[in-house]
């Protein structure tokens, strides 16, 4: 079963041209299914948690009536129910095939950086220990704890070059750049990243979700990588963590789908990590129902235990208590939905918010019984490497 294609039968643009045409303020999204570049704002979609899909459908209907050709809603939604959102119907949309893997990698520039961990790694490890105490007391089955790096350069950060490097260095990822500027920001703010995790895609009757949970860092030695892949598949702790996620995703999609297929997990790799992965597929019972659009499915799924925990509300409360930094858009969702309800939304991980000279990036780890605080620090450090490599930094985090 395939993901929804961003590509029309005869795309008139080249993927490389769309990537080269991106400028801050545009919306860019690409994956192995295609590329999309959107510019301008025909309408802004504002609605509270749980009603965004309906508001998006109404905005798409209104755009169609006003003659907007092939309207889509694009943007991002933050982690918390009351978090920021940036959803719009753009004025112009261009599509192309998937980005190639042989294009030029933009230079990183010559910026000098200062890096501030928020919190310090030892404070994060103490937060993991506090989370384990909640798990031992039976309050939680799992909680995902994140930490932040704040990077400050001696010159403005070039978002187009950063996006290009993310696309080229992570060819299998879902790459994105979204304007998430808000009142009070000292300069335009852009959410940019290369997520490996598909929250949900929809094409007609077909639905696909690909939750990831249970991870180990990737290393240079291929023999050691093979050992780590085998260890993930054999790990009772990691498989239990993954089962929390895949079961919840299957339960939610089961409300909308027939013929749901939930296979045994496999291991997928990114340039920096190995992840347990389950590709869940299903067939929508009522694809014409506006309540079964790609965005509606994404709202129903978010937040999965891959970024929050089990049970959800207690995990959210623990995150608010144990994480000193507001996640913002990190571990939310980013993507697109069209007037037919088709679309693709991914989990906002391996991402950063860029504002002038400042880059804020987050990484999280799933805490379950048996988690080791020091190992979770190592895991989050490895997850930072996607953005750090794209920025030209190879540092210990």
From TrEMBL:
Keyword field contains Amino-acid biosynthesis: no
Enzyme class: isomerase
An example molecular function term from Gene Ontology annotations: isochorismate synthase activity
Family listed: Belongs to the isochorismate synthase family.
Organism lineage: Bacteria, Bacillati, Actinomycetota, Actinomycetes, Pseudonocardiales
Keyword annotations from UniProtKB, A to Z: Isomerase
Gene3D superfamilies per the UniProt record, alphabetical: Anthranilate synthase
Positions of the Chorismate-utilising enzyme C-terminal domain: 122-383
Catalysed reaction, written as an equation: chorismate = isochorismate
Protein name per Swiss-Prot or TrEMBL: isochorismate synthase
The EC number(s) this enzyme carries: 5.4.4.2
Origin: domain of life: Bacteria
Organism of derivation: Saccharothrix syringae (Nocardiopsis syringae)
GO biological process: salicylic acid biosynthetic process
């Amino acid at each position: 079963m395939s993901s929804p294609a961003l590509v029309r039968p005869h795309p008139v643009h080249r993927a490389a041209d769309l990537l080269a045409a991106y400028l801050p303020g545009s919306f860019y999204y690409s994956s192995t299914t295609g590329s999309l570049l959107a510019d301008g704002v025909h309408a802004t979609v504002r609605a509270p948690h749980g009603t965004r899909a309906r508001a998006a459908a109404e905005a798409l209907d209104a755009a169609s009536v006003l003659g907007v050709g092939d309207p889509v809603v694009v943007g991002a939604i933050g982690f918390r129910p009351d978090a920021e959102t940036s959803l719009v119907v753009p004025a112009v949309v261009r599509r192309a095939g998937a980005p190639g893997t042989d294009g030029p990698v933009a230079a990183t520039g010559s910026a000098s950086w200062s890096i501030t961990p928020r919190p310090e790694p030892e404070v994060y490890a103490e937060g993991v220990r506090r989370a384990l105490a909640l798990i031992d007391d039976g309050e939680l089955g799992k909680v995902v704890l994140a930490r932040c790096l704040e990077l400050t350069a001696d010159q403005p950060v070039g978002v187009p070059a950063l996006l290009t490097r993310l696309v080229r260095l992570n060819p299998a990822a879902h790459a994105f750049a979204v304007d998430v500027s808000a009142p009070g920001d000292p300069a335009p703010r852009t959410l940019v990243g290369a997520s490996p995790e598909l929250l949900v895609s929809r094409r007609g009757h077909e639905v696909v979700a690909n939750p990831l949970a249970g991870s180990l860092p990737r290393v240079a030695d291929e023999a050691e990588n093979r050992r780590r892949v085998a260890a993930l598949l054999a790990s009772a702790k990691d498989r239990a963590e993954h089962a929390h996620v895949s079961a919840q995703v299957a339960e939610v999609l089961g409300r909308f789908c027939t013929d749901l297929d939930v296979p045994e997990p496999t291991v997928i790799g990114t340039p920096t990590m190995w992840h347990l992965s389950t590709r869940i597929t299903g067939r929508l019972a009522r694809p014409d129902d506006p309540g079964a659009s790609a965005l509606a499915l994404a709202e129903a799924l978010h937040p999965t235990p891959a970024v929050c925990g089990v049970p959800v509300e207690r995990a959210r409360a623990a995150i608010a208590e144990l994480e000193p930094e507001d996640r913002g858009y990190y571990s939310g969702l980013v993507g697109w939905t069209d007037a037919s309800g088709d679309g693709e939304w991914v989990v906002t991980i391996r991402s950063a918010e860029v504002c002038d000279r400042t880059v804020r990036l987050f990484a999280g780890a799933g805490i379950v019984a048996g988690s080791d605080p020091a190992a979770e620090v190592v895991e989050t450090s490895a997850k930072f490497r996607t953005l750090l490599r794209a920025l030209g930094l190879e540092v210990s985090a």
